[in-house]
Amino acid sequence: MLTSGNFSRSKNEKSKMASIVLKQIFSRTATASCCHVRAIAQNSSRSLSTSQTLLSNKDAAEVQPQQEEQQTSKNGGFFKNLLRVRTLNPTKESHSSLLSSKETVYEIQFHAVKPEFMEDYLNQFSRFQGLMHEKKTGANLVASFTVEIGDQDEAVHIWEYKGGYPVLNNATEIYRTDQDFIEYRLARNKMLRSRKNQILLAFSFWPKLEPRNGKNIYEMRSYTLKAGTMIEWANCWARGIENRMTNNEPVGGFFSHLGEQYVVHHLWGYTDLQTRKETREAAWSRPGWDECVAYTVPLIRHMQSRILIPTPFSPLQ
Over the range 133-155, which residues count as b (16 or more CB within 10 Å of their CB) and which as e? Predict the structure, then answer.
């Protein structure tokens, strides 16, 4: 039986035990809170340190180009020479006037032909280019190709208009209104999947496109440049092309004046693909070629290479 004295002692013991448990709970809670506060403080310290580091890196990143630019300005060198043409006042002359003459303009045509009509298409185009001459349009076909490697079943034609845009306008008017040409277009359009053209100017430092002896293959390397970089491109290639004259491979260099803008076409001639390989590899052994590549590659947004075979009626063989 539980007496009053035993009950009193039991009650006191329970009170002591409860007091001990509460002290342990508060002690653990306080310890956890302290640890949490210390963790927050450490994280804050790390964040501040990281922020200071990033700020230092940002400052360094901003200072480094300025130091490099100052060093480049002091030392001069190729890059400074490359941009020297920028000292010309852009309001005095257009970029195209600095790079070419508008006394002769060119048109390049790309015709995607339905595969089953390629032979008929070439036969009709041969008669068409003859009509352009007979009717005294002023348009002169200087090169005509089919694509061997690249976009298959594509024909590429290059027309020359000596006398510039007045001659081009006259040729276009005859082409649009003459009945023979109207009938030709109706027949031709049924054989095509798509077509596009560009009006080009020739770079003044490239050779003039002229007929060649023997049988050749041609490579057209087409580049879409970043807007505003045509001057840099031309200024660099005016020197770089000297490294590609050994086998007389440069045929013609052009840039777009109407149509898709900032497009460059370089046309190269080779005896065969093996000659192309050897010629291109040999260029790397000549001083200056590596600089031309290094400074022009960053200017390119897109590039394409086509291996071309002259058509039977092409003046350029």
Answer: eeeebbbbbbbbbbbeeeeebbb
